[in-house]
Design brief:
6-stranded mixed beta sheet; 472 residues; 2 domains; homodimer; alpha+beta; glycerol metabolism (chains A, B); Chloramphenicol Acetyltransferase; acyltransferase (chains A, B); O-acyltransferase_WSD1-like (chains A, B); lipid biosynthesis (chains A, B)
């Protein structure tokens, strides 16, 4: 039995029936050529047959009781009921993406069973176009979304002919992480961190360790976390922005809506090149344009600009969660898309300056303590705190090459995130081969017609392409 | 806004992620002749189209807050998101009953969203044999299982040619119940109550009102309910039996398993006639025989006999819940099936005598207060109380004639009940036309191989048929 770090445990402490704190992913696969009608059922049978060894991480079960002095700890489940975790489902006819998103929204809304290891894996048959889907779900206390996606990828292969592949629960991601010899180069930075790291250089490297220490020392409970946070905000470390209240910043209910779409990476790269910005800037500008349209359509566009929190992966800290964040002004009050992109770009640079003048511990406090999880509305009572941002926009680095699973080609992979009290909408971006995949996760009640955001994202990209053409 | 009776509210108060307190039902339908592949999708579209008026009861939403002084109350949801409540699902191939029970077990394990009216209705396509299924789910705070099944039936018809039928959420069952003029004959007693009423005569008629009063006066909280219960047990009203601890009497987890099967009513009636018992006696003997085999297979058959609590419907009390209970010795320690049936029969008669010597208020206290919900393990801390029974076996009276829905013939209808802390297994029996349908609902962990109980029920009936043949 191992005591859980506070950073992991808080995702259990803060969870409620209205706020499940698991992350998910949706993968779409082409059925291999010549696959019979029982292809997926056979695959399912093989996965639950008991031939697959379950890695220790995926046997871990959360527990607390007298023996742990009431603290959350990890224990090992020696009798994992694999048929509970690995499930076969089907879409109703005609099996369009619409039916798939409907099912995945439902699956993502239900809680994981705390009496078992905190993950599920759903094979879904009946997707039109001779495809099938996989929805997987893992508790944030086990690992954050970036790590979960990375781990899912590891279970895929670039080789279309590989078979009898080990599923993700047969592979323990931890040894590879923790056994890196001293002096060996750390893995390349990822996601928003790519640019963040430019901003802050080596400073961020020590952040994980520090944030971990902060988390541990805050073990006494949410009240202290809240006041620590207030101290940070009220004194030196005032947040750079104040986010305006919007319809997206309300308490949430227990039901979810998820929508997702792929965009050709080339279109985004073309805008980036012609406007002298980064892919991240363009993705944020797409999100900003879409949010502006959405809020206008609901007559709720505030005069002040929306603020996004961008999670960054910190150096490995022994916890499954290594999240910090930076804040970016989305300039949603700017009607001109060219100006909006410029302001977003400038805001990113300002974040750089803001971080540069500070010592590593301050950066860690700003990014790790402020933004995740307190700013995320996880801590009860923290919502009373002045809102620092309107939504979280994550960038999860994805695989560069086309991947396969048991001969089935991965057609698309979409991250599904965690709406929170006060943050009813989440946008997560993920690259895969020559696509940019965007997953939008929201509370079903607070974010009506969430799927319209997909169209608005496309509209925003078209606008940016016009800006790029004008610049050229 | 209307304050909820304590009897209804306790199902919300006691609910947790491990203990959802909704009841369910599974209906199997034959697709009408000539129905095309889109029959169910079209039906679904029609049901969620907005043309269907939602009855006030199914717009009710549970709430509590400052305005209700922290008590649970009913408020009206003026903006019901019907697509959330009425869902279309599908079975993976080959769509056997096995796949259906797997899906229904999952659906039954997830919590209803308290931000919405507490019901769901799932159309399920892809059931082999050209069939489809309906799983519906309603919170116990809204109505008990008997009432829910009755209400579902009302939305069906004996006429195979009827179309454009009002679904159950378009019909409010309450006016019919509450507007019965004084002096008009009460509806015929139902289920176990049929026999219970023989035992206690008119006494039971006033029980509902009294139990309601008890519930209301207990509004102060579970602690007082527990001590009231202890008072009852320790003083005059000691329970007639003490149930032995078994593997079924343990805390439960968040996952469920459900299994169901139909038996020809004729077989049960033949045993009843030849042994001079009642259908209820035979159903209890089947359950007892099955439980004996199951516990033997798990090396957990206690020396002392298992005790079953049999809910009885009480007179209407204005609450959606009108449950009392009697206790019956299942004689599971008796190896001889003939002797076992005899003892079960005698135990039923003893229950009659036990009730007969008491005044109506005492009967109400025994049946309503003792058995439901305190004895049901709903009240936190009540599990420390000496266990009065091992499981609940319910008898839900079903329709006598074959029923149809939009031209689809109802093939089978199975009640799905609520496993509780300390009562990990529930058996519910329901008659329909010339069948006896048995639904077995259990905790997925505490009741391994729950589906084996179906085979054991059949074995027990075969044994009883041998007893009947010997008697003849």
């Amino acid at each position: 039995m191992a005591t859980m770090s506070f950073r992991d445990a808080m995702f259990l402490l803060a969870e409620s029936r209205e706020r499940p704190t698991h992350v998910g992913s949706l993968m779409l696969f082409d059925r291999p050529e010549g696959a019979g009608p029982d292809y997926l059922a056979d695959l399912h049978r093989q996965l639950v047959s008991g031939d697959v060894e379950i890695a220790p991480l995926f046997r871990r079960r959360a527990m607390r009781g007298v023996s742990t002095l009431g603290q959350w700890a990890w224990t090992t489940d020696d009798d994992v009921d694999i048929e509970y975790h690995v499930r076969l489902s089907a879409l109703p006819r005609p099996g369009r993406i619409r039916e798939l998103l409907e099912l995945v929204s439902r699956l993502h809304g239900s809680l994981l069973d705390r009496h078992r290891p905190l993950w599920e894996f759903h094979l879904i048959e009946g997707v039109e176009g001779d495809r099938f889907a996989v929805y997987s779900k893992i508790h944030h206390a086990m690992m954050d979304g970036v790590r979960a996606m990375k781990h899912l990828e590891k279970a895929l292969s670039t080789d279309p002919d590989r078979r009898d592949m080990a599923p993700f629960w047969a592979v323990d991601p931890r040894p590879g992480r923790t056994s890196r010899p001293v002096g060996e180069k750390a893995p390349a930075p990822t996601g928003w961190l790519g640019s963040t790291r430019e901003y802050v250089g080596g400073a961020l490297r020590t952040a994980g360790t520090f944030a971990e220490g902060v988390g541990q020392s805050l073990n006494v409970g949410p009240a202290l976390v809240s006041s620590a946070y207030r101290g940070l905000v009220e004194h030196e470390l005032a947040l750079p922005f104040e986010a305006p209240p919007t319809m997206l910043n309300v308490p949430i209910t227990g039901a979810r809506r998820f929508a997702a779409q792929s965009w050709p990476l080339k279109r985004i790269q073309r805008v980036r090149e012609r406007t002298g910005t980064t892919v991240n800037d363009v993705m944020l500008a797409m999100s900003a344009g879409a949010l502006r349209r959405y809020l206008e359509a609901h007559e709720g566009l505030p005069d002040k600009p929306l603020v996004a929190a961008l999670p960054v992966a910190l150096e490995d800290s022994g916890s499954g969660n290594a999240l910090g964040a930076i804040l970016v002004n989305l300039a949603t009050n700017e009607p001109d898309p060219a100006e909006r992109l410029k302001k977003i770009r400038q805001s990113g640079l300002a974040a750089k300056e803001n971080l540069q003048g500070r010592d590593p511990m301050t950066i860690a406090a700003l990014s790790a303590v402020v933004a995740a999880p307190i700013g995320m509305g996880l801590v009860p009572g923290a919502s009373a705190i002045n809102q620092g941002f309107n939504l979280i926009i994550s960038n999860v680095p994805g695989p560069k090459d086309p991947l396969y699973w048991e001969g089935a080609k991965l057609d698309g992979i979409y991250p599904i995130s965690v709406p929170l009290d006060g943050q009813a909408l989440n946008i997560t971006v993920m690259s895969y081969a020559d696509s940019m995949e965007i997953g939008v996760t929201g509370d079903r009640r607070a974010v009506p017609h969430l799927q319209h955001l997909l169209g608005y994202l496309e509209d925003a990209l078209v606008e940016l392409e016009a800006v790029a053409d004008a610049d050229a």
